[in-house]
From TrEMBL:
<dbReference type="GO" id="GO:0045892">
    <property type="term" value="P:negative regulation of DNA-templated transcription"/>
</dbReference>
<protein>
    <recommendedName>
        <fullName>Glycerol operon regulatory protein</fullName>
    </recommendedName>
</protein>
<dbReference type="InterPro" id="IPR029016">
    <property type="entry name" value="GAF-like_dom_sf"/>
</dbReference>
<keyword id="KW-0319">Glycerol metabolism</keyword>
<keyword id="KW-0805">Transcription regulation</keyword>
<dbReference type="Pfam" id="PF09339">
    <property type="entry name" value="HTH_IclR"/>
</dbReference>
<dbReference type="Pfam" id="PF01614">
    <property type="entry name" value="IclR_C"/>
</dbReference>
<dbReference type="InterPro" id="IPR036388">
    <property type="entry name" value="WH-like_DNA-bd_sf"/>
</dbReference>
<feature type="domain" description="IclR-ED">
    <location>
        <begin position="68"/>
        <end position="252"/>
    </location>
</feature>
<dbReference type="GO" id="GO:0003700">
    <property type="term" value="F:DNA-binding transcription factor activity"/>
</dbReference>
<dbReference type="InterPro" id="IPR014757">
    <property type="entry name" value="Tscrpt_reg_IclR_C"/>
</dbReference>
<dbReference type="GO" id="GO:0006071">
    <property type="term" value="P:glycerol metabolic process"/>
</dbReference>
<feature type="domain" description="HTH iclR-type">
    <location>
        <begin position="5"/>
        <end position="67"/>
    </location>
</feature>
<keyword id="KW-0804">Transcription</keyword>
<keyword id="KW-0238">DNA-binding</keyword>
<comment type="function">
    <text>May be an activator protein for the gylABX operon.</text>
</comment>
<dbReference type="InterPro" id="IPR050707">
    <property type="entry name" value="HTH_MetabolicPath_Reg"/>
</dbReference>
Length: 255
């Protein structure tokens, strides 16, 4: 069997060192800590920076873990532990609200529905697990956008699609909506993806309070929202309670 690849071992050691530290580290500090030649450490750091696993501060020249690595680290949680931890709470939310419940996580600039509980009635419904929803036109997506600047940046690469006349399609409108989500702690959609349908969602947080997903209800606009377009206080309360419960199970003790 072939032996370990030294360059990969060294790269892994650098990432562990940056993850363990409380702040940014310079090339010299990293080289000294790992007993590497400064040139070797610099070459590995430049490679890791090229793939987004580390970032360099422009002012100090020091390095820290990059957004790509942080997202990679939460991807397993998003699609596995997130779903398994949230299943019971999602079932309870559907029973209390009388509406369909979906749990979403970010995937390639969209919202991946990782769990879906049908509305508890006899109506014909379609399972949405695996469906990709637009970030800017869904309550789940607005929550994810509000707490992830990389997702916001992905919308700037093209013109957001208008699904209805109510869809937010300008960067200004989307930015304003994200600010409201952060301020209120929840998001609402009302006829923005499908005319006559609405949704309410709240963030699911993991360790350290990092938002790893969203949970929400969806249904007919007249049931989910008030006549003025604001979310039903009863449903909003149920959604926020469920989001806090899942977050606590994931280790976010503050929620």
């Amino acid at each position: 069997m072939p032996g370990p690849i030294q360059s990969i071992e060294r790269a892994a050691a650098i990432l562990r060192l940056l993850a363990r530290g409380s702040g940014r580290l310079g090339v010299g500090e990293i080289a000294e800590s790992l007993e590497l030649a400064k040139g070797t450490a610099h070459g590995i750091l430049r490679t890791l920076q090229g793939v987004g696993f580390v970032e360099q501060d422009r002012d100090t020249g020091k390095y820290q873990l990059g957004a790509a690595l942080l997202h990679l680290g939460t991807s397993y949680l998003d699609v596995n532990e997130l779903r398994s931890r949230a299943i019971n709470w999602a079932d309870a939310l559907a029973a209390r609200s009388g509406e369909a419940v979906r749990i979403g996580a970010p995937l390639e600039g969209r919202v991946l529905v990782v769990h879906h509980v049908f509305r508890p009635d006899d109506s014909l419904q379609t399972l949405d697990v695996g469906t990709l929803l637009p970030l800017h036109a869904s309550a789940l997506g607005k929550v994810l956008l509000a707490y992830d600047t990389t997702l916001v940046a992905s919308l700037r690469t093209g013109e957001p699609e208008a699904y209805t006349r109510r869809t937010l399609v300008t960067q200004t409108a989307i930015k304003r909506a994200c600010g409201k989500v952060r301020e209120a702690g929840w998001a609402v959609e009302n006829g923005e993806m499908i005319s006559g349908e609405a949704g309410i969602a709240a963030p699911i947080r993991g360790h350290g309070g990092i938002v790893v997903g969203a949970i929400g209800v969806s249904g007919a606009a007249e049931r989910v929202c008030e006549p003025d377009g604001s979310p039903s206080p009863r449903l909003l309360g149920h959604v926020r309670d469920a989001a806090r419960a899942v977050s606590r199970d994931l280790g976010a003790s503050r929620w």
